[in-house]
Design brief:
single chain; 119 residues; alpha+beta; four-stranded antiparallel beta sheet; globular
């Protein structure tokens, strides 16, 4: 049997699982705060994995001389119950290297409008 689940529901479950695991390890109440720290520290990766759609914006000109090319990619998705639009810096293998910006939205409609206007 095949089961499908929206990316938003799956990403919300990932955050809940992260909180639950941290509470087991560090005690009740600590999980939420530690999960937020994990999310902040690895924000680029979490957002990239939670994306529902992406759109190439153009090449990214790195300040330091890197041996590989990077791209700017607009992404939209849902993480921890909130919609987001972000601009990610991504390499040719699809690995995120950072963020240029992120905005959060209460509704999918607002996020989709912002995603369409991102350049």
């Amino acid at each position: 049997m095949t089961m499908f689940q929206s990316i938003g529901a799956a990403s919300d479950r990932v955050v809940a699982t992260l909180v639950a695991g941290l509470e087991i390890e560090f005690g009740r109440g600590a999980g939420e705060a530690l999960a937020q720290r994990f999310l902040e520290a690895e924000e680029s990766d979490f957002l990239w994995d939670a994306r529902a759609s992406e759109r190439w914006l153009g090449a990214y000109q790195a300040r330091d001389e890197e041996d590989f090319e990077l791209d700017r990619v607009a992404i939209i998705g849902r993480l921890d119950g909130r919609w987001f639009v972000a601009v990610s810096i991504v390499d040719g293998d699809g690995n995120p290297h950072g963020l240029m910006g992120r905005r959060s939205f209460r509704s999918e409609r607002q996020a989709r409008e912002a995603f369409a206007a991102t350049h």
